[in-house]
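Reading a protein record of the kind used here takes little practice once its layout is understood. The fold follows as a row of integers, each naming the local backbone shape at the matching residue. With these conventions in mind, the following record can be read line by line:

_____
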Amino acid sequence: MFEAHEIVPEDPLLCLGVAVSTLARAQGRRADNRQQLIVQTAAFMEEYRKFRGADNLATQEVEYNFGRFFHQLNLGSFAVRHYRRVLVLAEEWQQTHPDDPGFGPEAAYNLSLLYVLSGAPSLAKDLYRRWLSI
């Protein structure tokens, strides 16, 4: 994957793929330089953000993936910020695309997990009602 990234460094999917694989290496048992790998992951995530685009749906995707990045690192307060941004963008998206929730349900589910774990089940219920019920 690193070789592909060197050939096409402005491909957002490759930047995301390298970030995910680097984060997986950082969280492995044999990683002796975890902090360095996490910093590299953040750098690849920023490249991904730069090349992904700026329309509403692309921004939802980027914010969701940043939320996942922080969630994976157990940095819930940072993840919450990104998941909330996704929900705001998804609300705007649904005004012009009523049949497409965007990344709202995915962000709401992950955000509800963080709320439940932090002792705020009532906030999670609000998300269930708005985003996760038919």
Residues 12 and 51 are 5 Å apart (CA to CA). The chain has a mean pLDDT of 93. The radius of gyration is 16 Å.
